[in-house]
Design goal:
Layout lengths: L1 E3 L5 E8 L2 E6 L8 H11 L3 E6 L17 H15 L4 E6 L2 H11 L4 E7 L5 H16 L11 H17 L12 H9 L7 H8 L19 E6 L18 E6 L5 H4 L1 H12 L2
Parallel strand pairs: 3-4, 3-5, 5-6, 6-7, 7-8
Antiparallel strand pairs: 1-2, 2-4
Helix pairs in contact: 4-5
Length: about 280
């Protein structure tokens, strides 16, 4: 289904399940919600009314001709969808890049946020990409090096260069999956993915998305569940330790970047035990 944003863009969502509402904010940036729904619907929908959103420009949502993919616009889309659905409040579940959207929404709309669930989320893309580069050097046999962030453009050139070498060696997706057979499943789901390439390009060239959003964590008073992965080298296995939420439960799950695929039992228990509180 689609809803029309205040600036006239058709944005896709699907609402399924029963219980207290919970919106899922996907990562990427520039991915979609379809694969998470595929794996998690049997895990979460018996107790939560899940709202699966494809962010504007992503997946099944309309692309913005004016490339309005700013942080404020993405947050506005979430709040406009809440109003459209008629929920007074809901849980905000952010995965990977979706964590940045989740904490910004919770900071701006605390009265609409029942609680925040961050699974394998980055709140500082510079730090997470820095970890990927250093881990990439280790895998490539280069050894650790000092990385100076002169400007975003040069930093991203280094990131892309390292990523390209890892992909050529067949090593990059091991940062996200312990078992690469799971990537083959998601690749089949993603065959129809049609995101606007300008979405990711906009995010990766915008200073506002590379701010340190961990600074927001100490300002959020709502209950928070943080899920980290022991081998998650997409955001960094220790990245969640930089968060400073006041009311937080931390669950470290054995696995990499997608616990809802690789360790479903622990993921389900962590999320539902939190929402039952």
């Amino acid at each position: 289904m689609d809803f029309l944003t205040s600036d006239g863009l058709k944005v896709f969502y699907e609402k399924r399940g029963k219980g207290f509402p919970c919106i899922y904010l996907h990562g990427g940036p520039g991915y979609w919600s379809k694969s998470f729904q595929y794996f998690s619907q049997e895990l979460l929908e018996e107790e939560l009314e899940m709202v699966y959103l494809d962010q504007r420009g992503c997946g099944r949502s309309e692309h913005s001709s004016g490339q309005d993919y700013s942080l404020s616009r993405l947050i506005s889309d979430i709040e406009e969808l809440r109003k459209f659905l008629g929920f007074s409040e809901w849980y905000i579940l952010g995965h990977s890049f979706g964590g940045i959207l989740a904490v910004n929404y919770a900071a701006q709309y605390p009265e609409r946020t029942k609680g925040v669930i961050l699974t394998n989320a980055t709140l500082n893309m510079y730090e997470s990409f820095h970890h990927q580069i250093q881990k990439g050097y280790e895998v490539l046999g280069v050894g650790r090096r000092q990385i100076i962030w002169d400007n975003l453009e040069s930093f991203m050139e280094l990131f892309y260069s390292t990523l390209s070498k890892l992909i050529d060696k067949g090593e990059y997706f091991k940062f996200q999956y312990v078992d690469l057979a799971n990537k083959k499943i998601t690749d089949e789901i993603d065959m129809e993915l049609n995101s606007d390439p300008n979405f990711q390009r906009y995010i990766f060239t915008s200073e506002e998305f590379f701010l340190d959003f961990t600074s927001l964590t100490e300002k959020i008073n709502r209950p928070v569940l943080v899920i980290g992965g022991t081998h998650d080298h997409a955001v960094g296995p220790s990245h969640h330790k930089t968060f400073n939420f006041k009311n937080v439960i931390i669950k470290t799950i054995k696995g990499s970047h997608h616990p809802y695929i690789e360790n479903q039992k622990e993921f389900k228990e962590a999320v539902l035990n939190f929402t039952r509180l």
